Amino acid sequence: MNQYSNAPERFHRTKKRPGKGRGHALLALAFIILASVTAWQIRPLFANDISVQDEPGLTSDFAGYPGNPQQERHSQTSNDATPTQAATQTFTFAELNAMSNDYLLLVNPWYAVPHDIAGNFVRIDGHVNSLNPNMLIIEDALIMLSAMFNSAASVGFHQFRVTQAFRTHEYQQGLYDQFAGTGIAARPGHSEHQVGLAVDISYEGVNIGNSLQGDWLMNYSYRYGFILRYPQHKTEITGIPFEPWHYRFVGQPHAFFMTHNDMVLEEYIAHLRNNREITVFVEAVEFNVFYLSHVDESIEIPYGQTFWASRDNTGGIIVTAINTNE
């Protein structure tokens, strides 16, 4: 089992050595105080460095959304469970496929948009800044997008806005015809915008690909379940040129893992397919991620454990479960 932890490095406990003088302790204390004062004094010199901004508070997309989203999360309960033997329920591949939220659908030049997209589409209007308030997006993605924009505003970036969200097949066809031969628009049926989980983000008056605002998005979007979908050094894998404005919602545990392991969605799905199970830590919450690749496969979920499933659009099912074991 592979695992990734975003938690800070654990402190190592060591036994206290005897025979240390008080003078040494006072000297060490003085050094720490001097170092702290010096660090605080030079801090303004780095005020324009995005990497030293305080991290925004983490909004959870699994421990109770604000606004009561419609995304169904499944939790099994039973009166038959005992302390000595945890009761479980078996879910077949077909059952998991039916309850898919489609967070992890792979859509690219080689995998087309399925005809039966899951999720509750809602209007952006009144939630985030946008060029068109009538644009639609999957509700869970909008909730986390709003949290991300609010967090950006808390550090001084107030002008993020959405320029593109969900697109119909007809709209995508129009764009494709308009930019034929340029590679700017994906073929109809092969655009992530048709899934309702992708947004194009701009910032008033700046080039999002070369700005502090763009750096903030790249540094912090994963904390809200979003990934930069088409990074510059992954174009051969994604099949799409660098798009610093295009962000895709996949959910927090997956965004954490992909970002910290420098993976795009294509690589992440391949990693899950090869490893079958990984563990991801988001702050203090442990997630177990399982991959089912065949219709004859099933999985046992303990009663009381919250989980959700997503098709990957390559024939597999990805199950994400919150580990509540103490």
Explain what this protein looks like in three dimensions.
- This protein has 326 residues and is of the alpha+beta class.
- It has one domain (74-322): Muramoyl-pentapeptide Carboxypeptidase, domain 2.
- 26% of the residues lie in helices and 20% in strands.
- It has a 6-stranded mixed β-sheet. A 4-stranded antiparallel β-sheet has the order 6-7-9-8. A two-stranded antiparallel sheet has the order 3-12.
- A hairpin with a 5-residue loop joins strand 13 and strand 14 (317-322).
- The longest helix has 21 residues, at 22-42.
- It is globular, with a radius of gyration of 23 Å.
- 34% of the residues are buried.
- Mean pLDDT is 80; it is low at 5-57, 59-72 and 76-84.
List the helices and strands and how they pair.
Elements: E1 2-5, H1 22-42, E2 74-75, E3 88-92, H2 93-98, E4 121-123, E5 136-138, H3 139-154, E6 160-164, H4 169-178, E7 198-203, H5 212-220, E8 226-228, H6 235-238, E9 246-249, H7 252-260, H8 265-275, E10 277-282, E11 285-292, E12 298-302, E13 306-311, E14 317-322
Parallel strand pairs: 1-10
Antiparallel strand pairs: 2-13, 3-12, 4-5, 6-7, 7-9, 8-9, 10-11, 11-14, 13-14
